[in-house]
Amino acid sequence: DWAKNQDKETGMFLLMFCTMGLQLFSQPDMAIDVLSELMPLHSNWSKGKSSSGSEPSGLEIVVEIMLSLLAQNKHILRDLVQTIFKLISSQMTKPAIQSLLDVIKGEAGEENDESDEEMEECDDGDE
After folding, report:
1. How far apart are CA 57 and CA 41, in angstroms?
2. What is the full per-residue pLDDT of the chain (127 aa) written as tens digits?
């Protein structure tokens, strides 16, 4: 099982590094930001280090990277996130899942706020 997860993580890093390398041509600032987070993560992973208690785990950092890539609203980045999620979903930690839920709750809250505003505008127009 450990070897299987090791292969998944190797594939995840390879995929992320290749995609971000290509993104250097179209979105250099974003790609550099992601690579600057990914490089130390890969370095620690390849040395077999785990994060200390106060630092977020590597998986949590990957989830944050995935969320930032989704915010870019680019098809290739959405595909990358979908593939990475399939690779790491079985290893998700509680804090990593909470990061995803926080974003989902935030989006749901924004949609409710927007619909409330639209209803208020409709009410104001009737008077």
Report:
1. 9
2. 545 667 778 888 999 999 999 999 999 999 999 999 999 998 888 777 665 555 667 888 899 999 999 888 899 999 999 999 998 888 888 988 888 889 888 877 776 666 666 666 655 555 5
What phi and psi, each to the nearest 5 degrees, are found at residue 45? Answer: -65, -45
Across 1-127, the runs of DSSP E, i.e. the strands, are none
Non-local (6+) Cβ contacts of 14 within 8 A are none
Distances (CA, A) of 32 to 27, 28, 29, 42: 9, 6, 5, 15
Under a CB-based contact definition with an 8 Å cutoff, are residues 100 and 63 in contact? Answer: yes
Residue 108: partners with Cβ closer than 8 Å, 6 or more residues away: none
Q: How many CB atoms lie within 10 A of CB 19?
A: 19
